[in-house]
Specification:
By secondary structure, the protein is mainly β. Helices cover 0% and strands 63% of the residues. It is built from no helices and eleven strands. It has strands at 2-7, 10-12, 18-26, 28-39, 46-51, 57-59, 67-72, 77-82, 91-103, 106-114, 118-122. The strands form two sheets. Strands 2, 4, 5, 6, 9, 10 and 11 form a seven-stranded mixed β-sheet that branches.
């Protein structure tokens, strides 16, 4: 019904930058909160940054001042600009969205969806 597709990951040197994108598609009535999570090997998935439908943002302490989340509601997209990357940022990054959807005439409110993940590797 709903798909989230991420792009923009890759290999970058310490101090470099990457921009992640995520596009939602399918039976979407409204996209509420959106966010980026990451999971490093052997660690739990953690919230990196979130943004509400009205544009209010929040960040993990470890990325404040380096990462910026934004969204383009008309295109059902969310972005994560990552600057001053360091090896500790290496992880699979996942897009998450809370979406109001419909299926066979029934409305489902604030259902959570995940993208497939995109690898970010910071290494010299």
């Amino acid at each position: 019904q709903v798909q989230l597709v991420e792009s923009g990951g890759g290999l970058v040197q310490p101090g470099g930058s990457l921009r992640l994108s995520c596009t939602a598609s399918g039976s979407i009535l409204r996209i509420n909160d959106m966010g980026w999570y990451r999971q490093a090997p052997g660690k739990q998935r953690e919230l990196v940054a979130g943004i509400t439908s009205s544009g209010i943002t929040n960040y993990a302490d470890s990325v404040k001042g380096r990462f910026a989340i934004s969204r383009e509601n008309a295109k059902n997209m969310v972005f994560l600009q990552m600057n001053s990357l360091n090896p500790e940022d290496t992880a699979v990054y996942y897009c998450n969205a809370k979406i109001d959807t419909y299926y066979r005439g029934t409305r489902f409110s604030d259902t959570g969806y995940w993208g497939q993940g995109t690898q970010v590797t910071v290494s010299s």
